[in-house]
Every structure is written in structure tokens, then in C-alpha cells.
Design goal:
Elements (H helix, E strand, L loop, with lengths): L4 E7 L3 H12 L6 E8 L5 H11 L3 E6 L5 H11 L4 E4 L5 E2 L3 H6 L6 E10 L4 H5 L10 E3 L2 H5 L7 E4 H6 L13 H5 L7 E13 L15 H19 L4 H17 L11 H12 L4 H5 L3 H11 L3 H20 L3 H11 L7 E8 L8 H13 L4 E6 L11 E4 L3 H9 E6 L14 E4 L23 H9 L4 E3 L3 H10 L5 E3 L7 H5 L3 H10 L7 E5 L8 E3 L2 E2 L7 H8 L3 E5 L18 E3 L6 H7 L2 E4 L4 H5 L6 E4 L3 H8 L6 H4 L4 E2 L2 H9 L1 H7 L1 H11 L7 H9 L3
Parallel strand pairs: 1-2, 1-4, 2-3, 6-9, 10-11, 10-13, 11-12, 13-14, 14-15, 15-16, 17-20, 17-22, 20-21, 22-23, 23-24
Antiparallel strand pairs: 4-8, 5-9, 6-8, 7-9, 18-19
Helix pairs in contact: 1-2, 9-10, 9-11, 11-13, 13-14, 14-15, 15-17, 16-30, 21-23, 22-27
Length: 711
């Protein structure tokens, strides 16, 4: 292997991924490389990362565009500077296996394109899992059917001889961003043998934020359709009379994309007319031979598109969706309910005085939805109220109906109620009707960075940001407890509708019921001693501690025996774990000292009966600060949590209104000297209170209800 390889990397605003990408190229086992980076007028810090590699590694060079020209232009520009015998294209958010290029070059036969496996990943750590069975040996190859390679419509992961590129004047299309590879690939379609290197891996990153900075393939479907229609039309006209194989390939790709991507545009009311017109135009170019190979349903749709028959097309499409949805609905009870929800309940009249409430995904009767409901039962008696629970049969004030979450009744009431009140996101399959009003109360003031303020999402769901964006588009109102939260929610949720800035309804009780009579009543109801002080321990969950999607774990990180020995004469401890955490904590042997109140509905009652709060990064301390009682921060994993998992909005080590503790002994010492800690942190606590509690008056519920539920 004595061939030089020119690696071409177009860059546009990928600073989040670029270091890993370029490092994976610099660290290749095959070192005879020319790395041409084209900075396409990036506006982020990508240029600094590029400069670092160009300075430190003589193989790296950079071309900078002064205005954005697009990926096709960048690749064409770099090809002119290429000096290697082969060219290898890498996208700037992707990565390579350390021997990706070496394995491909072991073939090195003329008139052959060598390509490797393309593996989708959502973060760097998943590379190890995706290739753990990879065989460490010489190149093992197999011939790859042409269509299997070309259906990717991508050039990444393949070695192209530079001589072929220049002799055929292969160019990327510069008029479109997505699918620009087609113009490069079509002149060599079926002209060269394709060989797959079994041990060569190209890692294609699935960006976790396709909303703020999507990859080309993650852009909106209507944008993808316009790009494909543009290049398809031009290539089809160029090849239809002189290259039957290419013409057939283009038709197959169009129909494949129609069925997988573009057909979904027909569900979007504001886009379906334009999508129909675009598809109708390009479907006229599809050959009859490809049409007749489709099943009768798809064939009917494509013919209607070709003839521009708008009403007929949507009639056929409606039947198509009905048959498909009906078939799916037969696979489970819940899918059957969803079919009834979409097909029947969503067509029923809206009840303008029906309100559906939910709290923590049906787990609790608590939080701001509870406060709003209890106010409305007294002041809006003519309204119909429905509560959603995982288990019904709860004792509630008022006359609310209770329905089981995801039951048929649940779908009926959500489809026919004008108002939804929830402190969480709703399932993706729920649809908002014209006239629906969604009041999102949310469930806390954020310390940890949220959604679009996070770079990476180390959790069980790599589609977190995309799903959150779709779900939050349904919110009409969002409650912020303070100016600090209001600004964060606008950024983190990309929320641009009505922000309700009156404080949290759930915190009204902290002002209205902060008295001895109420506190004694709650303690008695929970069978707790009246002669001991109460320490409430309420930690958050860790994004990286989960068994699988939706199943989280948590372990106590302090010594309960030592705590009881030192504090048990004067204190009891209440444990309140985050609702995501699935474990049932084992506190056997600590009865009378430790009380697990994780399943108690209303944490506000636990605030009121507690003399001290111990937390970590949970938002509970924002609410608790309304009581002006001491707060201790047990942050045993501060460095990891702050630097690796989420990051904070506040300067945790300098702005918290209480000491940061990391051991059981420090907890004991702080509790034993709590009066001194209150004195030491009084000024900082006062500043924090003014920042966080300035909107709280005990009347947030009244103000919010009067604005949203106009009589």
C-alpha cells in the first residue's frame, strides 16, 4: 500500500462534533493522507478546531469560503486540490474506525470502488458497541450489488480513484444541498465493480438536535422533497434517452422516497398542497414499467399524482392510511384504541367546558395541575373535570371523573375536551384539534440545562430533542415561576407563545398553609412523630443511570446506620425520590427513623413538615426556598454531573444558598450545626430568595385560571 488518499471534509457549523471527526482521521493507521477541510463560512467556533489540526499536522490543509456555498461546491473545490490516488469523503459530524482506510486500501485493484460498512451512532460511546464483533484480520471482502451501494445516495465510506473522477469530470450538484451526490454517482452507475470491506467502518452520526442544527438528511421533509425533485428532474431528462439503467434507478429512488418520506407530508395540512404539486410534476417522468411493479394501492396513488387528480389522490391515500392503521390496530389493544381515537373521537364536537388534568404521567394527584383543579372546583362549578391516573379510584375533592391513562375513556376525553392541563409532555401520538387549549404547567425551576440548551443528551432516548420539540409545539400557555425560569424556557423549549409569569400554583400552599395547625395535621396523617425534627432528602435522577428506555435506577450514597446513630434521637428522615426512578428502596431495619415518601402525591406537604432539606441538583430547592428554611446540598458526584451529564444554569459552587456536602460525616456535622449554617448563609439566601421567589404571592393559581379559562 503506497497510495496516497485525499480525505475531503466539508464543514459548516459542526463545532460540537468536529474535534472527534478530525481526530478519527488524524488517528488513522494508514498515514499517507492529504486531509482537505473546506470551511463553508461557518459562524460557530469550527474554525478554531480546524486551525488546531492544520497547525499540528502537516497533512491537514484548509480552504475557507467567505460565504456559504453548500456541500456540493465544497467537495468540488476540494477535488481540484486533491493530490492522492484515491479520494475519500467524510462528513464533519461523522467518525472513522481507526483502520477504516487501511482496510480498504488492501484491495487496490483498478476499476474497483471499495466501500465499508456505514454504522449509525448517536454518540461516540456507542462505537464500541456497534463494532464489538469486528474481526481483527486482513481485509475480508465481498462483491456488493450495485443498487445496494447506490441506494445510499451517499459517497461517504468509499474510496474513489482520483483518475476516474477527473477523467469523467465527476461533480457534485451545487444547486441543491441534499442529494447532491446523485450527480457525482450517476455517471459511474454500474460502470465499476463495488467491493465491500467487511472490517472497514464509517460511523454516521445521528444528530440529537435535528431542530437547531440538523444534518442535511434531517431537514424538513418538504425541503428534502424540493431538493430531490430538482435534481431528479434534471438527471432524469439527461439520462432517460441514453442510459436506461440510470433512468430506472432514479425512478426506483423516487418511489422509495415517496413511500418512506414524502407521503408523510400529506398529513401536514399546511404542506400537503405544495407537496402534491411537486410530486405530481416529477411523477410524470416516472416510466410505466416502474409504475406497474407497485402494488395496486401505491400504483393508484402514483397514477393520480401523474394526472394531477388532487381529490382522487387524497381519497385513495385516505383509504391507504385507513387500511394500514386498521391492520396495525389489530396488533394490540392500545393501538386499537388509538385508531378509534383518530377515526371517531377526534371527529366529535369539542366540549368548551371540559378540562382534562394529568400530573407526572398519571402517577400522582399533585403539583400545579392539582392546585388549578382544586381552585376551579370552587370557582368554576359549571365545568366538567377529568383526571388521568395510572390507577383510578382515588379520593378527590369535587366531582372529577377519573380515567385510566391510555384507556379508551382516556382517548375519548382528550379528543373532546377543549382544555388540557399537564405538568409533563404528552404522548407523541396525541393530536391537537382546532380549538384545543393546552396549559403546560411544567414541574420545576431548572438548575440543570434542559433540552435545546444541552449539547449531548446522555439518556435512554436519542430522539429526545426531536420528540420534545414536536410535543411542545402543542402548548398554548407555559407557566414560569420566576424571571429566571421564563428566560430559560424560551431558549430551552424554543417556546414563543404565552408565558404565564405569576409564580407556580403548586407553591401557593407554601404561603397559605405554613402554620402549625396544618403541619401537625399532615404529620399525623403520615404517622410521623410530632416531637422530632424532619430532614427531607429529595435527590434528582441521573441521566446516565438507567436499565433501559423508561426504567431508571438510583442508589442511596450515604450511611443510614451512621445517620441514625448520630441524629436519631432528634430527627427523622423522609426520602422523596424522583418519579423517574423505578427502584423500591430497601429501608428494612430503619423503621421509625427513615420514611419512604416517594409515592406520596404532594411533595408540598413534605416541604411544609420538614425543618431541613437535603438535595443535590433537583429543582426542589427552588420551591423549598419559599419557606426560607435551611437547605443542604449533598453533591457527591458534582464534577461528573456538572461537566459530563447536564451542566448548570447557575454557578452551583458559589450561588447555592447552602453548603455543598460530599460525605455522610459532613451531612451529620451540618445538621448538628444547622443554626450556624443559617447564619453563615443568610445573605446569600436572601439574594437567592429575591431572584427565585419574587413572583410568588400565594395567589398564582387564581391569576392563571382567570387568564386561561375566561368565563
Amino acid at each position: 500500500m503506497n497510495q496516497k488518499v485525499s480525505v475531503i471534509v466539508p464543514v459548516y457549523n459542526t463545532e460540537e462534533f468536529l474535534q472527534e471527526c478530525l481526530q478519527s482521521i488524524a488517528g488513522q493507521s494508514y498515514i499517507d493522507l492529504q486531509v482537505i477541510i473546506v470551511n463553508d463560512a461557518s459562524t460557530d467556533q469550527s474554525h478554531k478546531i480546524i486551525d488546531q489540526f492544520v497547525t499540528q499536522d502537516h497533512r491537514f490543509e484548509c480552504i475557507t469560503n467567505h460565504k456559504r456555498m453548500g456541500v456540493g461546491y465544497c467537495r468540488n473545490l476540494a477535488i481540484k486540490q486533491a493530490t492522492g490516488e484515491y479520494v475519500y469523503f467524510v462528513d464533519s459530524d461523522d467518525m472513522l474506525h481507526e483502520k477504516a482506510i487501511e482496510y480498504l486500501l488492501q484491495g487496490d485493484k483498478p476499476n474497483t470502488i471499495y466501500t465499508g460498512h456505514v454504522v449509525k451512532i448517536d454518540k461516540k460511546d456507542s462505537i464500541e458497541d456497534s463494532t464489538k464483533e469486528q474481526e481483527e484480520e486482513s481485509l475480508r471482502t465481498k462483491s456488493l450489488p450495485h443498487f445496494e451501494f447506490y441506494k445510499r445516495m451517499a459517497v461517504s465510506s468509499a474510496l474513489f480513484p482520483l483518475e476516474v473522477i477527473k477523467s469523467l469530470d465527476l461533480k457534485f450538484d451545487e444547486k441543491v444541498d441534499s442529494y447532491s451526490e446523485l450527480s457525482f454517482l450517476m455517471p459511474i452507475y454500474k460502470q465499476y465493480k463495488i467491493v465491500m470491506g467487511k472490517n472497514s467502518y464509517y460511523y454516521r452520526r445521528v444528530r440529537n438536535d435535528p431542530i437547531t442544527n440538523p444534518s442535511l438528511g434531517q431537514r424538513e421533509r418538504d425541503v428534502l422533497l424540493q431538493d430531490f425533485a430538482d435534481i431528479y428532474s434534471r438527471l432524469k431528462k439527461e439520462y432517460e434517452n441514453n442510459n436506461e439503467a440510470v433512468s430506472k434507478y432514479l425512478d426506483i429512488q423516487l418511489i422509495r422516497l415517496y413511500r418512506s418520506k414524502f407521503i408523510l407530508l400529506m398529513k401536514e395540512e399546511d404542506k400537503k398542497k405544495s407537496a402534491f404539486e411537486t410530486l405530481s410534476t416529477i411523477m410524470k417522468l416516472v416510466s410505466y414499467n416502474q409504475l406497474k411493479k407497485q402494488n395496486v394501492v401505491i400504483r393508484g396513488e402514483l397514477k393520480a399524482l401523474q394526472k394531477g387528480q388532487y381529490k382522487k389522490y387524497f381519497r385513495l391515500l385516505g383509504f391507504h392510511h385507513f387500511v394500514r392503521d386498521t391492520k396495525k390496530s389489530m396488533t394490540s389493544v392500545n393501538k386499537f384504541y388509538r385508531q378509534i381515537y383518530r377515526g371517531i373521537f377526534m371527529k366529535m364536537p369539542l366540549n368548551d367546558k371540559k378540562v382534562v388534568f394529568g400530573s407526572f404521567l398519571g402517577k400522582q394527584y399533585a403539583d400545579s395541575p392539582k392546585a388549578i383543579y382544586e381552585y376551579m372546583t370552587k370557582h368554576y362549578p359549571d365545568y366538567e373535570f377529568v383526571w388521568v391516573f395510572n390507577e383510578t379510584g382515588r379520593k378527590l375533592p369535587g366531582k372529577a371523573k377519573q380515567v385510566k391513562r391510555l384507556s379508551l375513556a382516556y382517548y375519548y376525553h382528550l379528543a373532546t375536551a377543549k382544555y388540557w392541563v399537564s405538568n409533563m409532555r404528552q404522548p407523541l401520538h396525541l393530536k391537537k384539534r382546532e380549538g384545543n387549549v393546552f396549559l403546560e404547567t411544567w414541574h420545576g425551576t431548572p438548575l440543570k440545562r434542559l433540552v435545546f440548551d444541552m449539547d449531548e443528551v446522555y439518556s435512554a432516548n436519542p430522539k429526545y430533542k426531536k420528540n420534545f420539540y414536536q410535543q411542545s409545539r402543542l402548548w398554548d400557555y407555559l407557566i414560569a415561576a420566576n424571571p429566571y425560569s421564563s428566560e430559560i424556557f424560551k431558549s430551552a423549549f424554543k417556546f414563543d407563545k404565552k408565558m404565564l409569569e405569576y409564580g407556580y400554583p403548586r407553591n401557593d400552599t407554601l404561603y397559605q398553609n405554613n402554620n402549625g395547625e396544618y403541619i401537625t395535621k399532615v404529620k399525623k396523617s403520615l404517622n410521623m412523630p410530632l416531637d422530632k425534627k424532619v430532614v427531607l432528602y429529595a435527590p434528582t435522577w441521573r441521566d446516565d443511570e438507567f436499565y433501559e428506555a423508561g426504567k431508571y435506577k438510583f442508589d442511596l450514597k450515604f450511611d443510614l446506620q451512621k445517620l441514625r446513630d448520630k441524629l436519631g434521637d432528634d430527627y427523622i428522615i423522609i426520602l422523596r425520590m424522583h418519579y423517574f426512578i423505578a427502584d423500591n428502596l430497601n429501608i428494612d431495619g430503619f423503621e421509625g427513623f427513615v420514611y419512604n415518601m416517594s409515592k406520596h402525591d404532594d411533595i408540598a406537604d413534605l416541604y411544609l413538615i420538614s425543618d431541613i432539606l437535603i438535595t443535590d441538583y433537583s429543582s426542589v430547592f427552588f420551591d423549598y426556598s419559599n419557606l426560607r428554611r435551611p437547605i443542604l446540598y449533598y453533591a457527591y458526584d458534582l464534577e461528573k454531573y456538572r461537566d459530563q451529564l447536564r451542566g448548570f444554569y447557575l454557578d452551583y459552587e458559589n450561588q447555592m444558598p447552602g453548603p455543598i456536602l460530599k460525605t455522610t460525616d459532613e451531612i451529620i456535622n451540618a445538621v448538628q450545626h444547622i443554626d450556624q449554617i443559617e447564619e453563615d448563609y443568610k445573605e446569600k439566601y436572601d439574594e437567592f430568595y429575591e431572584k427565585i421567589c419574587c413572583w410568588e404571592t400565594g395567589h398564582a393559581t387564581e391569576k392563571i385560571v382567570q387568564e386561561v379559562f375566561k368565563k
